[in-house]
């Protein structure tokens, strides 16, 4: 186990914008040791007043859509052109890759990885979605207290994790491939309707024409979607991360969004709503985890599930049967 | 309190396709009295082997889109032209109208209400979504055992109830108005992507052109959506319930869907998956209800929520604080 310091050490280092202190605090947040968790709680509590001053951007898309390459290009733009300090976090609970998804593809983010204005933190390995969601939420707070002004939260758009990311960011960016065919099979239903912007990736070479056509198609499709209370209507952009095109437009779209939602109470309200969401989500998750960890439940569940599947018992009768073990 | 009979009475009456017996059993299913619930459980358990033989169709759309009028026309077609016995149930937990949403507008369903082949049951009043979802699920079982071959589950597409309906039907029909503008504000994000078919309503008179244009727009938009494992791609139809047009097409679409999904294991798998969903959903709901009913939780929650909203405490720290009361 790595060395531990008193809470004040982490708090001071983070407020002094020190990366080592930040990394060490994130390690605590990700730890499952009760003593680490308590220390983490103390640090978070003290840093909470210094958090909130960033733009939190969710970035999702199916594997291979070009997330890493886009983040490299877009992140470089944000730090170099916009002169903003950027933190990149990842939610990737299904990742088999050790060290998470981000540092795994160093070649695709090498410019950003060597950039003093950028801080890249891979997804913690071997954690449940609930666990990663929690540590990512808390890492956002730590990064903000450490002076990061833009935060990317990356996730692979194939499971429940996009919904979790959607609930922790201000702006939700969906990367899509042109030629919306079988490639899309992987993405979950409902995600498209969550997007504040769609970026058609790899808009270069042979692909450029297809990307332009896709932009038009998506733009008219998004018009049909229900609007949000934000008053914002989702935009579609095309970008080539390799040729560095469309990057400025994506940033301008985010700025336009912020202008729309900060011109009123929506931005703050959304964040407050997200806070409440995580309070309730965290309670829900803990209650369920505890219930399903009970030996009697573990023993009875498979048999009951089988009966439910075979139509021998109704779902509700089975639930009642199991709930006998709840106390 | 109404008279109660032994379980065998309800079971026999329902298997003899008697409506009074069915109605009485549904009343038990909807009752909150523990003795009624136990009786209901017994009836359901005995009828379970006789259930499952219907096509379950969810029908949703914003208020005023024309659900009642469409159900009147479509239901008349199903019973008269297709000669099928039809049950119409409703999930409408937010309804202020006494007697639920369906019988409220008798004028719009008068043909169907007088139709011997059709059975209309309003949404139970004054219940939570969880409660209505449960009683609707169990009513479906009762209706199937009573010989109904087609079941409509209607809901207003403005809350969580569409998701609940989506989890209990084979086919999910979304009614939409042409001129997708502000009218759509009410519908929840993600619902469009759940639809197996979209019907543009009120395609008559001045509206016909707009409806045709909307059909083309939606059809190309739906192509961009992620596909399901079913292999089905969602269809768009236009219909005028007043002029009785497009009704046959909607039925043919449902038949085409059934052909697609029954030609393999998808249909059965989806129902099994739904059963498991309700098992877990029911456990989740009960655990949460019990937790939030605890006096200490009730007392502490508002204060903690306030602190979370004001950013004084992190969502996770607040959750931990509350979870101290969980046992
Ligand atoms: N032509 C072209 N290829 C690109 C572009 N961006 C990414 N690619 C290529 O697409 C492939 C996948 O890119 P990644 O950035 O690794 O995609 P990803 O979404 O991060 O993939 P996962 O990490 O597996 O989820 C790589 O071979 C990239 O070189 C682009 O702008 N143009
Ligand atoms: N022109 C035209 N009007 C229709 C049609 N269907 C429904 N309407 C009218 O639209 C209005 C709303 O219809 P309803 O069927 O009550 O709509 P609903 O979706 O059930 O509404 P709620 O029960 O309030 O959620 C009524 O005035 C209907 O007469 C149609 O096919 N053509
Ligand atoms: Mg990647
Ligand atoms: Mg109605």
From TrEMBL, chains A, B:
InterPro entries: GTPase_ArgK, P-loop_NTPase
Stretch forming the signal peptide: none
Superkingdom assignment: Bacteria
Key words of the record: Hydrolase
GO CC list: cytoplasm
This enzyme's EC code(s): 3.6.5.-
Example of a GO MF term: GTP binding
Pfam family, one: MeaB
PANTHER family reported in the protein's UniProt record: METHYLMALONIC ACIDURIA TYPE A PROTEIN, MITOCHONDRIAL (PTHR23408:SF3), METHYLMALONYL-COA MUTASE (PTHR23408)
Family to which this protein belongs: Belongs to the SIMIBI class G3E GTPase family. ArgK/MeaB subfamily.
Protein name as annotated: Methylmalonyl Co-A mutase-associated GTPase MeaB
């Amino acid at each position: 186990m790595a060395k531990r310091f008193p809470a004040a050490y982490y708090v001071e280092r983070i407020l002094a914008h020190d990366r080592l202190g930040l990394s060490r605090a994130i390690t605590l947040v990700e730890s499952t040791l009760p003593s680490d968790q308590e220390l983490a709680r103390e640090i978070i509590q003290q840093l909470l007043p210094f958090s909130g001053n960033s733009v939190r951007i969710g970035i999702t898309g199916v594997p291979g859509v070009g997330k890493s390459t886009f983040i490299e290009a877009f992140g470089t733009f944000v730090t170099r052109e916009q002169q903003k300090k950027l933190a990149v976090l990842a939610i990737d609970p299904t990742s088999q890759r050790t060290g998470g998804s981000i540092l795994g593809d160093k070649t695709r983010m090498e410019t950003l990885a060597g950039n003093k204005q950028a801080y890249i933190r891979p997804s913690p390995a071997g954690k449940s979605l609930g666990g990663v969601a929690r540590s990512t939420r808390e890492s956002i707070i730590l990064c903000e207290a450490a002076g990061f002004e833009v935060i990317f939260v990356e996730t692979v758009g194939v499971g429940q994790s996009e919904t979790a990311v959607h609930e922790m960011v201000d702006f939700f960016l969906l990367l899509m491939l042109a030629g919306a065919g079988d490639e899309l099979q992987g993405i979950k239903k409902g995600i498209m309707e969550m997007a504040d912007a769609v970026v058609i990736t790899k808009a270069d070479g042979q692909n450029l024409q297809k990307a332009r056509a896709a932009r038009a198609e998506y733009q008219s499709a998004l018009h049909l979607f229900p609007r949000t209370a934000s008053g914002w209507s989702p935009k579609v952009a095309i970008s080539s991360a390799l040729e560095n095109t469309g990057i400025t437009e994506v940033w301008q779209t985010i700025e336009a969004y912020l202008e729309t939602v900060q011109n009123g109470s929506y931005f703050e309200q959304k964040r407050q709503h997200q806070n409440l969401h995580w309070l309730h989500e965290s309670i829900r998750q803990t209650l369920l985890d505890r219930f399903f960890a009970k030996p009697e439940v573990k023993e009875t569940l498979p048999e009951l599930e089988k009966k439910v599947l075979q139509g021998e018992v109704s779902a509700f009768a089975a639930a009642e049967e199991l709930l006998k073990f709840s106390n």
